[in-house]
Amino acid sequence: MLERFKKSRADGRSNTQVLLDLLRSGSAGQIYTYAELSATLSEGLDRTYSKKRVCGICSGAFVSLLSELNRALTNVPRVGFKLSHANDHTGIALNKKRRATVQMRKSVATLNNVRHAELSPEARVIHEGTSLLVNAQYHQMASTSRRELKTLDAIKRITG
């Protein structure tokens, strides 16, 4: 087995499992400081996790936290993380959607602005195929967003 995948904890739990165990007993709105999270994650290990590493672990545990506890963690700058209320999930999802749209726009720009002369014929074919797919996906997302905005606008007009 690779050294990278060697179990660090005596009980064999991963960082995500340790984090889930800590948050399982928490209530919505509870704030966990970076120091508290680092101490919990470092317990029983010969190292201490930095603030940056704690952020990475929390980010990596996002989907597991949603699926197992129906909760999300949101960053509280310079403090730690907050266990979000159910009311916050819509805002969290919209923020993630906005960030994904920005990343897709950057992907499209990267694929559309390339020096084609530097590509081999095989690489050019692969590049053009990838570009077609990514552009189509981006435009489909943009179209869906426009329809969503129109629908929300109509709902607002109806409900006053």
Pick out its properties.
single chain; 160 residues; mainly alpha; Arc Repressor Mutant, subunit A; 2 domains; 3-stranded antiparallel β-sheet
Per-chain topology:
Layout: H1 15-24, E1 31-33, H2 34-42, H3 51-60, H4 62-69, E2 73-76, E3 80-83, H5 89-112, H6 121-159
Antiparallel strand pairs: 1-3, 2-3
Helix pairs in contact: 1-4, 5-6
Textual characterization of the structure:
With 160 residues, the protein is mainly alpha-helical. The chain folds into two domains: 11-84, Arc Repressor Mutant, subunit A (Orthogonal Bundle), CATH 1.10.10; 89-159. 62% of the residues lie in helices and 7% in strands. The protein has helices at residues 15-24, 34-42, 51-60, 62-69, 89-112, 121-159; strands at 31-33, 73-76, 80-83. The chain has a three-stranded antiparallel beta sheet with strand order 1-3-2. β2 (73-76) and β3 form a beta hairpin. The model has no long low-confidence stretch (mean pLDDT 92).
Mean pLDDT: 92
Which strand order spans the largest sheet, edge to edge or round the barrel?
Answer: 1-3-2
Structural class: mainly alpha
Biggest sheet character: 3 strands, antiparallel
CATH architecture descriptor name of the largest domain? Orthogonal Bundle
Query: What fold name stands as the CATH topology of the largest domain?
Result: Arc Repressor Mutant, subunit A
Helical content band: 55-70%
Number of helices: 6
Give the strand content: 5-15%
Number of strands: 3
Straight-line N-to-C gap: 63 Å
Work out the count of structural domains. 2
